[in-house]
Amino acid sequence: MENDVFRFSLGDLECAVIRDFTRMRELRELIANPEEEVPPEVPAGEEAGDYNCLLVRAGGQQVLFDAGLGERADYAQGRLLENLGAMGLGPGDIDRLVITHADGDHIGGILDEGGEPAFPRARYILWQEAWDYWSSDAPTGDWPQERVDFVRATYAAVEDRLDLVEAGADFLPGLRLVPAVGHKADHVAVRVTSGGESLLHLADGAVHPLFLDFPDLYAVYDLDPEGALACKRRLLDGAAAEGTLVFAPHFPFPALGRIQKAEKGWAWLPVGQ
């Protein structure tokens, strides 16, 4: 199981990337641009795609970023809890759970198969504007009603444990939300800083390295393509200029690397390279 866990340090923080699931995906099917906008050199074919979660021990607390897919999806089985167990941790050891946005592979694991909170002691960190969005009528224009009902039911089940926070201010020392609207209307990235080192949790700001190689491409999952492209440029240009470590949860495990400006777009430099 340790092959599904990658441990590292960031300043004074103990961190780990935990693989939640892997599934095959056709690369070109990730792209939403019209066919005439897709450069011919974009690779085709299937490859295994990872989804990974980040765990940080900060301020004496175990902070988990997103809850993974869970056990209720019909296309894959989340293994986050299993892999946490391999680290000697159980669901009750998680103190804070940061929600970057409400896609199913990020919040599906908040509740167990019985509809109860899967992390019984956790407080849930949610962007105030994300809560406002899901509490309004706006989602019914963006999503099928079934999806809206799923998200609202999930948040209702943990409402008494939600900590609604503003972006730009630390919710724990060195941890703050960064608005990243575009992929979804409730989407945030997260900045983690300790001991002069920093990490950017990219969330779904880019879901595969090809979206760095080809900067004008956007993903089928992006609700607002133009907003997603603008957000990607802002986050990646900043990460490249600062030399910060980046965690990109949908990139190949362990999904850690640095960003370098390229002639067009950006280069992904995985850890160890």
Give the topology.
Blueprint: E1 5-10, E2 13-26, E3 46-58, E4 61-65, H1 80-86, E5 96-98, H2 104-107, E6 123-127, H3 128-135, H4 138-142, H5 145-157, E7 162-165, E8 170-172, E9 175-179, E10 188-194, E11 197-201, H6 210-213, H7 225-242, E12 245-247, E13 256-261, E14 266-270
Parallel strand pairs: 4-5, 5-6, 6-7, 11-12
Antiparallel strand pairs: 1-2, 2-3, 3-4, 8-9, 9-10, 10-11, 12-13, 13-14
Question: From the 3D coordinates, which CATH architecture would you assign?
Answer: 4-Layer Sandwich
Q: How are strands sequenced across the largest beta sheet?
A: 1-2-3-4-5-6-7
Structural class: alpha/beta
What is the N-to-C succession of helices and strands? EEEEHEHEHHHEEEEEHHEEE
| CATH class identity | Alpha Beta
Overall, the morphology is globular
Strand residue content = 25-35%
Count the E strands: 14
Q: How many alpha or pi helices?
A: 7
CATH superfamily: Ribonuclease Z/Hydroxyacylglutathione hydrolase-like
Largest sheet: 7 strands, mixed
What level of helicity do the residues show?
A: 10-25%
Please indicate the count of domains: 1
Oligomeric state, counting identical vs distinct chains: single chain
What's the short version?
This protein has 273 residues and is of the alpha/beta class. It has helices spanning 80-86, 104-107, 128-135, 138-142, 145-157, 210-213, 225-242, and strands at 5-10, 13-26, 46-58, 61-65, 96-98, 123-127, 162-165, 170-172, 175-179, 188-194, 197-201, 245-247, 256-261, 266-270.
Task: Please characterize this protein's 3D structure.
By secondary structure, this protein is of the alpha/beta class. Helix content is 22%, strand content 31%. The chain has one domain (2-270): Ribonuclease Z/Hydroxyacylglutathione hydrolase-like (Metallo-beta-lactamase, Chain A, 4-Layer Sandwich). It contains 7 helices and 14 strands. The strands form 2 sheets. The chain has a 7-stranded mixed sheet with strand order 1-2-3-4-5-6-7. The chain has a 7-stranded mixed sheet with strand order 8-9-10-11-12-13-14. Strand 13 and strand 14 form a beta hairpin. It is globular.
